[in-house]
Design brief:
The complex is a heterodimer of chains A (157) and B (134). Chain A has 6 helices and 3 strands, in the order ββαααβααα. Chain A has 157 residues and is mainly alpha-helical. In chain A, 39% of the residues are buried. With 134 residues, chain B is an alpha+beta fold. Chain B has helices spanning 2-34, 58-73, 89-94, 122-133; strands spanning 48-53, 79-84, 102-106, 112-117. Classes of the chains: A mainly alpha (157), B alpha+beta (134). Chain A binds chain B through residues 12-13, 28, 32-33, 35-38, 83-86, 88-89, 121, 124-125, 128-129, 132-136, 139-140, 142-144, 146-147, 150-151, 155-157, and chain B through 1, 4-5, 7-9, 11-12, 15-16, 19-20, 23, 54-59, 61-62, 65-66, 85-87, 89-90, 97-100, 118-119, 121.
């Protein structure tokens, strides 16, 4: 296992599916909790944004990942489920989630609460859809972008 | 706070239910649209796999390795095609490809057994291949 805990070796990367699901569950739960807290919840939105950003920049060292590894997994509450997969799309999704939540937090601190909560719930909704149905919105958007780029560059679609 | 708690639960339940309805609708649409879809039988009448990928798609490389592992286990004949879904847009559209990787598995007679959007695991592919060969 490399020091990021995300693969046996770079030629055959492995991702812990349980870690991903814990990450997604925490996003949904904490955004919902932040919403329940109302005004004070904007700090929780900021915390989630920072956690995702740290996890994207330093894989395996984000608060959610540390909680999973040293808390849930160590206590045997969640079993690791390694599977062949690339870490990079998941890091990208984390980074995008962090960016959206950061913008949401800025809106909330600026008093633009409707836009702030809409953005925060959008991130939570995408995490929930990925958690429940395995649908990767980023993967979908990426492919559609490639198709459109090909179309507008003069290729046939 | 109670109202917001209720609203939060309602939102989560609504998203979950909407997702489930959408998933069911998509599955029915796929069965109607692609249920009778057939490929031209190969010269060897072997099961076929068409693996759609895209440029810069990291997950597609993982799908390729999973596919290689399945093929290494498979003892019979099998016809595998690797297709760039962006370059072969017409073919991708024919199979309703909306995400890459997408893996199409077809039986010996050309009948499409499954169209798997996203990274498909080893066991699922092997199961579909067994159906295709049966």
């Amino acid at each position: 296992m490399n020091r990021h805990g995300s693969g046996v070796d770079r030629a055959h990367p492995v991702v812990d599916a349980s870690a991903l699901r814990v990450n997604q569950s925490l996003i949904v739960a904490l955004v919902a909790l932040a919403f329940v807290f109302g005004g004070a919840g904007r700090w929780l939105v900021l915390f989630v944004a920072a956690s995702l950003a740290l996890g994207a920049i330093w894989p395996g060292r984000g608060p959610f990942q540390l909680f999973y590894r040293h808390g849930l997994r160590r206590l045997g509450i969640v079993q690791p489920r390694p599977r062949p997969d690339e870490p990079s799309p998941h890091r990208f999704a984390q980074a995008v989630g962090a960016a959206f939540l950061l913008i949401a937090a800025i809106f909330l601190f600026a008093g633009v609460t409707v836009a702030g909560w809409l953005l925060a719930w959008l991130v939570a909704a995408l995490a929930l859809v990925n958690l429940l149905f395995g649908f990767c919105a980023g993967c979908f958007a990426y492919y559609q972008f490639q198709r459109l780029r090909r179309q507008f560059s003069g290729g046939t679609v | 706070m109670i109202e917001r708690l209720f609203l939060a639960f309602t939102l989560i339940a609504t998203i979950g239910l909407a997702g489930l309805l959408l998933q069911t609708a998509i599955r029915h649409w796929r069965e109607r649209r692609f249920g009778a879809l057939t490929l031209s039988p190969t010269a060897t009448s072997a099961p076929r796999i068409i693996a759609f990928s895209g440029p810069g798609c990291a997950t597609c490389r993982t799908q390729r390795r999973v596919l290689d592992a399945v093929l290494a286990e498979w003892t019979g004949d099998i016809d595998v095609s690797y297709v760039d879904a962006v370059e072969a847009a017409d073919l991708a559209r024919r199979f309703g490809v909306v995400v890459v990787p997408t893996t199409v598995v077809a039986a010996r007679n050309g009948r499409v057994i499954g169209i798997n959007g996203g990274l498909t695991d080893h066991d699922r592919l092997l199961r579909q291949l067994c159906d295709a060969a049966g």
